[in-house]
Amino acid sequence: MSFRDFIKQMEERGEVLHVMDEVSPEFEVSAVMQSFSYNNAPIISFDNIRGYSGVKIVGNVCGTRRRLCMALGVSEEKLYDKIIEAVNKPMEPSITEDSPAKEVVEEPRLSKIPILRHFERDAGPYITSAVVSARSPDGRIENVSVHRLLVLSDNRLAIRLVPRHLFKLWSMAKEAGKDLDVAIAIGVHPAVLLAAASSPPLGVSEFGVANRLLNGNLKLVRCERVDAYAPADAEIILEARISRNELVPEGPFVDITGTYDAQRDQPVVEVVKVMRREKYFYHALLPGSPEHKLLMGLPREAAIYEAVSKVVPRVKAVNLTMGGCGWLHAVISIEKQVEGDSKNALLAAFAAHPSLKHAIVVDSDINIFNPEEVEWAIATRFQADEDLIVIRGARGSTLDPSANMETGLTTKVGLDATRPLKYPEERFERARIPISERILKIIEGLKRDKNQ
Length: 452
Ligand code: MN
Description:
alpha+beta
């Protein structure tokens, strides 16, 4: 149940593309990764890194829904149920002494790790796939989340703390006059990344969510120098402390929208020890790539699915679309029973995912993974004077350059593109041509001939 087990499993399925040419972590790895940022692209293993022998960089690991389903051992239909169950019924992981991450324990030298420079104007090299875990000063609350980390020197990082749970633990430590001990794990199983991107209430450890996703197979190891726990089979674990008072400028940095996020004063992280496997995999996560969008978006899709399911009889599917950054745009298909169901669905979706900006509800005959079908639904079933909801001054995402990036205040828009029940159903029916088995076979034959 480790990162490398999953890569091996995917290797056996032919999902891994190896880059044997020598490449540099400075802009070269990210350039190759960007050219594989399309739907259903393979995992890319960079086996020859300039200046770093014995290390492989692996990217696009969780780049497709199918691979994430394989990581969780579920079908696409059962994916949300699995995530919802894990968020609602977390299970405490076991603690182990014996961690493969302890193969090498050394003083921090971050320049020895092939941390990527991704985009032209990024402030520096950034760790993007790290799962950061910490406990409250009284040890009662644990939180696990993903944060971008800017390399400042061989033992210092800057961490972006959005005012969510880790920020809260850091504030609690600060009030107690302490730095916040953290474990920073790189190269963890996709289930751990998904759990860290989920949002159970404060007080629920995302490690418990990960353990449920992994059917009780997650083991944690306690850091030696700081009071924090990390997945025992991680590739690299940085033992670190977030300074209670030292802030430095963090950013600019390209985030999920593919635009540069603003520079802000953020806390410094002091790394005190590094534990790692001898020959480790470094997980590179390209900002704005399908992998980034899926990891952040999937737990939110599940949350939207759950919330909307409570207000309408049946939700067919939810898609935080790639064009909407996997974060800002949701398309939801439902079976509408009565007029108004679709508007309630929109309200539930906005409540379930506070960063959501534009949401579209369609009927269950629309394939929400096909943008042209969604647009067709808007073209033929939507009237703005009746079917549009505008919510001004709501809290949205600080990542949206068109919103107020300091306060995150934004305008939300909901589109009800379900067919109105006051008109006969036939009016909105997608016209079909009757087709016999014989004609189907002829068409298949023609398509085969064309492809040969
Ligand atoms: Mn949390």
